[in-house]
Amino acid sequence: FSKNLFRAPRQCKYKPSQKEAWIETAREYNRRRQTDTDNEPALENEVNLYVGPGDGGVEAALAKHFVGLLFFRSTGQQARDLGVLRRLRDHLSGSLGWQVPIYAVTNEPPGQLRHWNHAHRLDLRAPPYNLQLVS
């Protein structure tokens, strides 16, 4: 939990056996952020994958575990971003052989965690997040 660590360009690499440790680390980090007033940047988890010849089974794993695409209502630009997501959905649907869904969720403003409570299960379908199937 270093105060001056620049996190954005780092990629997460972990084994399936480390999943619970990642989840608990992210939960603890965000719990601490709720009580800290220095506005430390948010913990990011970006995923980049190479799919193609010699990918070591990544394409098969993606096809097996991919759930859908997510549009953030609060920070996205609906006219631009939904069009991009629809084109990506069409491409992925053709590649994977099944209809990839697009979901929309209302997210909290960057750097804020007013509604999240580490002690309770989060239901993204309930307010204030209202996760819904777009198409």
Write a structural description.
With 135 residues, the chain is mainly alpha-helical. It has helices at residues 19-35, 58-65, 78-96, and strands at residues 69-72, 102-105, 132-133. The protein has a three-stranded mixed β-sheet with strand order 1-2-3, with helices on one face. The longest helix is centred in the middle third of the chain and has 19 residues, at 78-96. Residues 1-10 have low confidence and may be disordered.
Helix content: 25-40%
Helix and strand content put the structural class at mainly alpha
For the termini, the CA-CA separation is 39 Å
Instruction: Please give the oligomerization state of what you see.
Output: single chain
Number of strands: 3
Please state the average pLDDT score: 77
Rg for CA atoms? 17 Å
Arrangement of strands in the largest sheet: 1-2-3
| General form | globular
Question: What count of helical segments does DSSP give?
Answer: 3
Proportion of β residues?
5-15%
**Biggest β-sheet strands, sense, barrel:** 3 strands, mixed
Low-confidence stretches: 1-10
SSE string, helix = H, strand = E?
Answer: HHEHEE
